[in-house]
Amino acid sequence: MGKAHDVDLRWRVIFAIWWDGLGFDDVARKLSVTGMPISATWVREMWTLFQHTHDVVRVTNRRAAPPANQLIDEQTALIIIETILDAPEATLNEHHATVTCDSGKHMHLSTFCRAVHRLGFTRQRLQQFARRRDEHQAALFRNMIKVRGYKAHMFLVVDETSKDERAMRRSFGYALRGQTPIGASGLLDRGQRLSALCSFDVGGFVDYELTEGTFDRETFLDAAERVIVRVPRVTARPTAVLLPVAVVHVRSRPHTLTTRASAQCDHITPFPGPRSIVLIDNASIHRSVRLMEAVNARGGMLMFTPPYCWDLTPLDNNAFGLVKRWLQDRSTLLKAMPNYTFRGAFELALQHAVTPSGARQCFHRCLYEF
């Protein structure tokens, strides 16, 4: 049959159902008498198409998805928003059950999923905070930074991080579709574990001090005097080796850390100059009169973040993550270098991993209003 005749037949189906009140089987029998056999299934499809599009011809081009307010009403949308904000870790099925119970309206799971996405929600990796974290104290700390007018360049951030050989292990690889990539190196032993006490500003890492194992109070204070107030070392740090271009060609900063650390000046300047506020978490080994006196003697201030608020320091807001990513991206080249040691690779990562723009981004992630 021709296309015009076909469209006419479709509208006759809709008219018979809507105006005459016939069922699908009755419409199929009535219109098949004219010599054009049709089935009740086809009649049902035409009626469904008309209900969704108000037309009887399918559009081949994909239409824009309707907005959320055409899928659900405003009250249900508000219930969805409140439910997800109250329990972001819940699954889609759990949210769907809660919304159905609270709104008293049943909607299919696929409709609920589309409404959630069109309201602007996406599934992301959760951030985990300690149960004893006080969100109110974190907000007050950020507000205090804003009210006092502190700027990003005034901070010298200090924290520790620990790494071993497993930090260079890559978590992703390539394989044919449907297969799982398997790492050639296998499971690595933990090996020697190194801890680094690092000082950091808007330009990147300022200085660092490495020790085997972890820091205790005495080793922390000895290292802090070098990376914060810059008391000269008894023995000089070994000169960093020259890197092949292939090792540092991506997202690397010029090797300025050693130059900055060896300059004839303190890391701290009198307040309110650059690096005049030492920001550090309130771990028990950090609270020391000796450290406070050393900072104050140079005109600086010592400031502690609230308990369990790791997100208030740029070092924990991706700076240490960039160091780990640098080690992973260059693990093959680093291990191929003569006289490779993990300690040397760790030092190179601290010297090259964070660019000035990356450091500013780490400060930005802390959500301070500088």
List the helices and strands and how they pair.
Layout: H1 3-18, H2 24-32, H3 40-53, H4 68-71, H5 74-86, H6 92-103, H7 109-118, H8 135-147, E1 155-163, E2 194-201, E3 204-212, H9 217-227, H10 245-248, H11 257-262, E4 277-280, H12 289-297, E5 301-304, H13 315-329, H14 331-335, H15 342-352, H16 356-364
Parallel strand pairs: 1-4, 4-5
Antiparallel strand pairs: 1-2, 2-3
Helix pairs in contact: 1-2, 1-3, 2-3, 5-6, 13-15, 13-16
Strand content: 5-15%
How far the N terminus sits from the C terminus, by CA atoms, comes to 72 Å
Tell me the series of helices and strands, N- to C-terminal: HHHHHHHHEEEHHHEHEHHHH
- Mean of all residue-level pLDDT scores: 81
Task: Describe the protein in words.
This protein has a 5-stranded mixed beta sheet with strand order 3-2-1-4-5, sandwiched between helices. It contains 16 helices and 5 strands. 44% of the residues lie in helices and 9% in strands. It has helices at residues 3-18, 24-32, 40-53, 68-71, 74-86, 92-103, 109-118, 135-147, 217-227, 245-248, 257-262, 289-297, 315-329, 331-335, 342-352, 356-364, and strands spanning 155-163, 194-201, 204-212, 277-280, 301-304. The protein has 3 domains: 3-53; 68-118; 135-170 and 190-364, Nucleotidyltransferase, domain 5 (2-Layer Sandwich). Residues 1-5, 233-242, 249-256 and 258-264 have low confidence and may be disordered. The protein has 370 residues and is of the alpha/beta class. Helix 1 crosses helix 2 (24-32), helix 1 packs across helix 3 (40-53) and helix 13 packs across helix 15 (342-352).
